[in-house]
Amino acid sequence: MPLVDYHDQFARAYDTFYADQDVAEEVRQATGLLEINGKLGRRPRVLDFGCGTGSHVIAFAEQGIDAVGFDTSPAMIAQARAKPLPPGPAKVRFEAGVFTSWCGQDPNEHFDGTVSFANILNCMESPEAMLAHLHSIRQKLAIGAKAFIEVWNGAAVFVDDPRPEIIRSQDRNNPAREVIRITRPEVDRINQRCILHYHVLTVDRSTGSSEEFDSTHRLQFLTPVQYRHLFELAGLAVVSEFPKDHPHASITERDWHIAYLLCRQE
Fold it and tell me: In the chain, count of helices (H) and strands (E)?
């Protein structure tokens, strides 16, 4: 299945997949780490790289923060733009396209913080592509601004293989609709890639209808020392690294999902 078709299909089920995600709490944590809310004397601006259907962007706006969401998928951005915006003065904008090109269109546009949730950096096809995107993130950061980035921990992949899983998610807006995602991972340790084979089935019991599709995603995983090296090459200093959702803990080889707080270097 071509990637654009996957995005079109996946965008319709995305919010159902992640219905149990505490987006508001993730945004509160990121805002605190970025140290922006209430400290700038004006309304801060945040860029969300890999925003999907825009839930985090809208949550930033609910905190009174201007937010721009960027995703390579026009289908994801179409879903984001269709969502109601919260009341209040915060401005929201969604963009789609090639991130590295978009970042260069307006060299004078900068942000007080950048976030990237859900291991988006690992979706890049190579470490070189990761570095190019990190350069672009640095380019959009204001002087002294920070970036919050979640990634896969390659050390954990080397210790324990990812396992097949079946996730069943119910549509909160239509309880009769269920999305079932079957994931079969395939690890390539030599090239540090994990190939995720997906089979997605959507069933609507109220209408008796169903649809399904298959897709393959390739994730590039790195170890912490490799991430640190990439960040340094991109001109981003590591402020802290920690397991996802535990900013005061140290990462271990058992932590699959880790996060970095980075600062733009001059």
Answer: 8, 11
| Model pLDDT for residues 231-262, shown as the tens digit of each residue | 999 999 999 999 999 999 999 999 999 999 99
108: Cβ–Cβ under 8 A, 6 or more apart, which residues? none
**Rounded to 5 degrees, what are φ and ψ at 117?**
-90, 170
The dihedral through the CA atoms of 253, 256, 259, 260 has a sign that is positive
Between strands 141-152 and 257-264, the pairing is antiparallel
Distance CA 193, CA 125 (A): 9
CB atoms closer than 10 angstroms to residue 107: 9
**Model pLDDT for residues 2-54, shown as the tens digit of each residue:** 444 556 777 888 888 888 889 999 999 999 999 987 666 789 999 999 999 99
123 by Cβ neighbours in 10 Å (0-12 / 13-18 / 19+) ranks as: middle
| Whole-model pTM over 0.85 | yes
- What ranges make up the beta strands (E) of the chain? 45-49, 66-71, 92-96, 111-116, 141-152, 165-171, 174-188, 193-204, 209-220, 236-243, 257-264
For residue 146, which of 110, 121, 118, 97 has the smallest C-alpha distance? 110
Closest C-alpha among 213, 223, 216 to residue 195: 216
Q: What sign for the dihedral angle of Cα 27, 32, 36, 38?
A: positive
Using alpha carbons only, give the angle 141, 68, 136 rounded to the nearest 5 degrees.
35
